[in-house]
Amino acid sequence: MRYLPSLPAPLRALLAALVILTTACSPEPPTAPEAVPVPPGMSPPPASGSVGVFQRTGYAVTGRATLAIKDGVARLDFSDDFSIGSTPGPFVYINTTNNPNTGQPLRVSALRSRTGAQSYSFQVPAGVRYGWVIIWCDPFNVGMAQAAIPLTP
C-alpha cells in the first residue's frame, strides 16, 4: 500500500483487506463433479469409518464428520451436535485436499440442514483416497468449514 501514502492507516488496511477478499473470492463455484446417488438395491456401508472434527475456515462450526467407503459406495454422516453459521448456498464436498478447487473433489450435495445429524450416500470413483470433508459456500466460492479425516481406503 505504499502507493497510497496519503490515506490514513486504518483506511489503507481496509482497502488492502478488500483487495485480498475480492481476488480470493471468485463468483464461480468449484467445477467438481457431482456425486452419483446410490442406485436402488445398493446399500451404503456401515456408519463406522474415518472420523474428523469440523474446524472453522470462515464460519462458526461444531460437530464431527464420518466417512465410510466400501465397494465404491460412500456414506457420510454428520454428528447430532453438528451446527454451522448461516450463509447462502452451502455445499458438502469430499476431497484429497482441503479446497474443492484443487485435488480430486467430489460435490456430494447441498447441505441439508445447518444443524443436527444428517447422512449422505453416494458413489465414489475407484482409487481415490479422500482426506477432507468440506462445507463450501458455492455462490462466493469460499470455505465455511472442514474436517480432516484419516485417508479413506
- Taken as a percent bin, the fraction of beta residues is 35-45%
Helix content: 10-25%
Helix/strand/pairing class, anyone?
mainly beta
Could you describe the largest sheet, including whether it forms a barrel?
Answer: 5 strands, antiparallel
Mean pLDDT: 86
Quick one: overall form? globular
Question: Biggest sheet: strands side by side, in what order?
Answer: 1-10-6-5-2
User: What's the order of the H and E elements?
Assistant: HEEEEEEEEEEEE
Report the count of strand segments: 12
Distance between the first and last residues' Cα: 48 Å
Residue stretches low in confidence (pLDDT < 50, at least 5 long) are 16-24
Total of DSSP H or I helical runs spanning 4+ residues: 1
Please state the CA-atom Rg, rounded to the nearest Å: 18 Å
Describe the structure.
The structure is a single chain. The chain is mostly beta strands and 153 residues long. Strand 5 (64-70) and strand 6 (73-78) form a beta hairpin. A 5-stranded antiparallel beta sheet has the order 1-10-6-5-2, with no helix packed on it. Strands 3-12-11-8-9 form a 5-stranded antiparallel beta sheet, with no helix packed on it. Strands 4-7 form a two-stranded antiparallel ribbon. It has one helix at 9-24; strands at residues 36-37, 50-53, 55-56, 61-62, 64-70, 73-78, 83-84, 90-95, 106-110, 118-123, 132-137, 142-148. The longest helix has 16 residues, at 9-24. It is 10% helix and 36% strand. The N and C termini lie far apart (48 Å). The chain is globular, with a radius of gyration of 18 Å.
